[in-house]
Amino acid sequence: MSIKILFKTLYYNFKTELSYKFDFISDFILTLSYYTFILYLFKIIFSYNNSFDFWRIEDFYISFLVFLSMNFILEATSDSLNDFFDKLFQGKIDSYLCKPIKFYFLIFISFMMPTKILIAIIFNIYMFFYLYFNNYFNSFKNLILFLVSIIIVNIINILFTFIIHSLTLLSDKNLSVGVIQYNIMQLCFVPPTVFSISTLTTLVIILPTIVSSAIPVLILIYSKYYFLYLLLIPLIIMTLISIIIIKKFMNFVRYFGG
């Protein structure tokens, strides 16, 4: 898929959002202000306690930054998935099948609203500056491994959300995937130190979304590099499942003339 088409799609979607300037600006400012305030409040509340079950305040804070950086990317992609499955569920997808774009692009990108991507970029920049100026990137290796772990957990979360969305077609009604996704993502705030090593390892392999904000912290600060290898297992499994589902969808949409 051409990068040019990607940027054109995002640009068009951005213009669509800007057609409601007040809604766009107010939503952008309020969202950014709210989470900035939460970060500030987070620092104040946890300043009275240096650690919780061997998970330091600094670990909590960096984990929360990781959560914000990936959550808005996931929400942006989830919006596109939600719109796609809504149209597919309602039988209104046929007009989109005439467009000269790849099917996976139609699913993951076509309906994406760039506002949340913009907010994600802002929090990502802040996170990397914070880590850099606090000397967490004391070697190039740490930077690369942390970046790779962030990319992998983002891909896993997106694929997991896609698979959950796919269950919509097996249901008699449209599932509230957003609610399911929200409830699962809230578990990211549970310190990984409350789990035993075997339980944490099992979670990373079976349901990594629950610990997706903690794994990059464990890799960066505690040098638990083996978690990076463990993440490859769900990444490969979810990728294969997603490919199978997309192929099934491609056969399914042929009935719409696609």
Give your account of this protein's structure:
β1 (51-52) and β2 (55-56) form a beta hairpin. The protein has one domain. By secondary structure, it is mostly helical. It has a two-stranded antiparallel ribbon. The protein contains ten helices and two strands; from the N terminus they run ααββαααααααα. This is ABC-2 type transporter domain-containing protein. The chain crosses the membrane at residues 28-48, 60-82, 103-131, 143-167, 188-221, 227-246.
Provide a concise account of the structure shown.
This is ABC-2 type transporter domain-containing protein. With 258 residues, the chain is mostly helical. It has helices at 3-18, 21-46, 57-90, 103-108, 114-133, 140-166, 177-186, 197-206, 215-221, 226-253, and strands spanning 51-52, 55-56.
